[in-house]
Write a structure and sequence with these properties.
The chain has 109 residues and is an alpha+beta fold. It is 48% helix and 14% strand. It is globular, with a radius of gyration of 14 Å.
């Protein structure tokens, strides 16, 4: 198995663009951002050649976890094992996820 462990955030499994479901208990954007910073994503290929992703922890939101895997996988596919390029790529993706979460919180009002 070719595995690229990025000590950054992650994402794979191209999932249709679904609107995020924000639960009844709302975490602040800062709380979600802090959780995301503590997550490590491991992206690689399994024996049949499918991309896989696992997270060391959960953000508490399934859709955020999916997007973390998608972002990390895209960055890994694009940059191979070059961490100097993967890390900023994933960081940009993480910021996009937080913007999406912020929009979802505004939509609940």
């Amino acid at each position: 198995m070719i595995a690229f462990a990025s000590l950054v955030l992650a994402q794979i499994a191209v999932v249709g663009s679904q609107p995020p479901v924000v639960p009844l208990v709302y975490d602040s954007v800062e709380t979600v951002a802090e959780r995301m910073r503590s997550i490590t994503a491991i992206v690689g290929k399994n024996q049949p050649g499918s991309w896989t992703c696992s997270l060391t922890a959960s953000s508490g939101r399934g859709w955020i976890d999916q997007r973390l895997c998608q972002v990390t996988a895209r960055c890994t596919i694009r940059y191979g094992d070059d961490r100097e390029d993967i890390e900023p790529c994933v960081e940009r993706g993480r910021k996009g996820i937080l913007k999406e979460y912020r929009r979802a919180l505004r939509g609940r009002a």
